Amino acid sequence: MAKKKLGLEDLGGFVFSTNDDFDESEYSNGQSQEELSPGEQELEAHFSNKGRGGKTVTIIKGFQGPEEELISLGKMLKKKCGVGGSTKEGEIIIQGDDREKIMQILKKEGYNVKRVGG
């Protein structure tokens, strides 16, 4: 199901103006993401089983950076845990409740991780 559009920002950041002296830089919302080193990232390891038919998953939230790096981090976690999962909407979803193992892997990679919930 598609995410509901809440405002003009959700429509792609279009700004319409009839002003000839319009300066677009005043209205840019900083969508170009800076690449943060792993030590500067604050990740959260969540446990969830809602909306998944009772199956448990570990969700990693809070990653800041390019989508390609998020996908590669998700692949690395899935491979090291030996489980399936996916990467979508800025979150890494790993099948099963492997929070402790995932947190250890992320800490070895240099990320700051905290356990959230349960």
UniProtKB/TrEMBL annotation:
GO annotation, biological process: formation of translation preinitiation complex; regulation of translation; translation reinitiation
Annotated stretches, region: Disordered: 1-52
Keywords associated with the record: Initiation factor, Protein biosynthesis, Translation regulation
Domain SUI1: 50-110
Record carries keyword Repressor: no
Highest taxon listed in the record's lineage: Bacteria
Signal sequence bounds: none
GO MF annotation list: mRNA binding; translation initiation factor activity
The keyword Ion transport appears for this protein: no
Pfam family, one: SUI1
CDD domains: YciH_like
Family membership noted in the UniProt record: Belongs to the SUI1 family.
Protein known as: Translation initiation factor 1 (eIF-1/SUI1)
